Amino acid sequence: MTQAGHVSGGPETERLVSWLEQNVAGFAGPVAVTKLEGGQSNPTFRITASSGDYVLRRKPMGPLLPSAHAVDREFRVLSALAGSAVPVPKVHALCTDDAVIGSMFYVMDMVPGRTCWDPRLPAQSPAERGAIFDAMNRTIAAIHSIDPQSVGLSDFGRSEGYLQRQIARWTRQYRASELEGNPAMERIIAWLPRNVPRDDLSRIVHGDYRLDNVLIHPTEPRIVAVLDWELSTIGNPLADFAYHMLTWRFAPELFRGLAGEDLEALGIPDEQAYLETYLDRTGFDMPQDWEFFLILSMFRIASILQGISKRAREGNAADDDAERVGAKALPISRIALDIIEARKR
Q: At what angle do helices 290-313 and 329-344 cross, to 10 degrees?
């Protein structure tokens, strides 16, 4: 399967169709395969077949960073959450045989819905915006309220030392993707291990929960599916929620954020109100050091973006816009450093 927008015919497509017929119940061709927009990390394709529409998520081709692009973990968590309070697509099968299309992939149902990229939601009314944000809040609270053991995910990740492991993981990932020096990242890497707060909460965490990773119902302001679970694990839900709340800290032109916007006029809750609603829904206490979680989250996204930047430099990116997106690692790391510096004053 190529990275092109449309695929039909040829031995690769024939292998895919043969695999689908053997592994997806009721599958019937002929098929057309179209690359979907987005998917900076894992290329995503729509399969249109006589038996219905499906989505295929695959690992990128070429050399990959350790532990990245874990489509097998996505498949497992989506399977585990089927029938829970968390809306997820139905998954059909995982293929670990690279010989089929060149890399590991899985297939799930195509869920009708809207992907919204701009959190200002310009096409919606204030009431609809408020309802969508409330649905996002309710959904991430539902994820964090599930006992991992109750859905067979007790071994999906280690419950202890999550924050320290996150610091170590994203430091390694940043080092593996480092291109030019970034003094802000060096300062953050030094600061984080010295300021880890109490870490005694353990739940399923999504790892990349934001507006463009959920599907909104075609006509109603509610979530019909949570997507892109490749970074999911067992960990501290407050860190997961802080990552989601970076929207309030980033300007629209930086990374699809809300900073500087008139939230009241938009009908969108402010950062404190959104946090308090989440805490009410989950029953969690206010964290001792909320800013630590925000700084860690900014460090994570800067490290992820640095990886995108490196893939763009090497010509192995999943999206043509990868170079521009990856370049945002630098300004995001500077925002995190500004928070650290402000704490000293």
A: 160
Q: Is pLDDT above 60 for 175?
A: yes
Q: Which residues pair with 235 in a beta bridge?
A: 203
29 within 8 A of 21, measured Cβ to Cβ? yes
Q: How confident is residue 27, by pLDDT bands cut at 50, 70 and 90?
A: very high
Mean pLDDT comparison of 3-7, 80-84, 228-232, 306-310, highest-scoring range:
80-84
152 φ/ψ sector (left φ>0, alpha ψ -120 to 50, else beta): left
Residue 96 in tokens: 């670990």
Give residue-wise pLDDT tens across range 251-263. Answer: 999 988 999 999 9
Asked if CATH classification 3.90.1200.10 holds for the domain at 126-344, the reply, yes or no, is: yes
Q: Which two tokens stand for residue 70?
A: 């874990």
Would the CA dihedral through 329, 331, 332, 338 be positive or negative?
Answer: positive
Alpha carbon distance 192, 300 (integer Å): 12
> Tell me: domain 6-109, CATH 1.20.120.80, correct?
no
C-alpha Rg value of the chain to the nearest Å: 20
For the chain, domain boundaries:
6-109, 126-344
**pTM for this structure?**
0.87
